[in-house]
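worker-3 :: picked Malonyl-[acyl-carrier protein] O-methyltransferase
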Amino acid sequence: MSAASPHTPRPADAEPLKQRVCAAFDRAAATYDEAAIVQRHACHALLAHLAPETAPAHILDAGCGTGFGARILRQRWPQAHITGVDFAPTMVERARPVMDECFTADIEALPLPAQQFDLWWSNMSIQWCNAAAVFAEARRTLRPGGRLAASTLGPETFHEMREAFSGIDAYRHTLHFNEPDAIIRALDAAGFRQIELWREQRPIYYPDLKTLLRAIKAIGAQNVGGGGRSSLMGRAAWQKVEAAYERFRTAEGLPATYDIIFACAATI
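worker-3 :: tokens ->
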């Protein structure tokens, strides 16, 4: 995802998307755990959906971040061998202590042998990637009878921000996320079966727009997509955005809604 800010230090299109995303998460590694409220919720919700009798011996945490997912996976299955992969080196260093092995790599092209894992797990990472490539790699690295469990973000994520900025300028202020049908098609094309998809919209509330944007920056999810503003936003325009966003205020504060898509599937 990408959030608008009154201070954008460089053109959004100055380097490839994947490189921008990686750099953003490297910078956010120190603040990520405290700010990643929705990511923690999604992690617990995804694990709760897996059948209690599931007992994977080898787990891949794809897009492992700081290792929060691995911690709760190990609580469920203390004997499992957990491998963590992330493309942000600083995230990998933070995750390494809770992994059996952990290394820097792109989950679209894993440097791993085929049929190595019983569970392919990914919490809030696929939205930064080509879903078809990710699921093809997941299918390749899973053993027969293996399971996939993933969460990602859907198209209604940050809809308040898109509406607040509409009419202010012609720039893109949020990324476009996959529709649920696109996730299902990508899983099916990769060879997965028993595909389950469910969805949850979860708002997080903040006292004002600047605090909301700082929280997004703290998880590394800002100014990473193409088509973003490359110059400072003027005071008058920023005030218009703040006024437009105020229409969404509730008794709890200003919402930033996350449209969470969960997916489970199996190999045969």
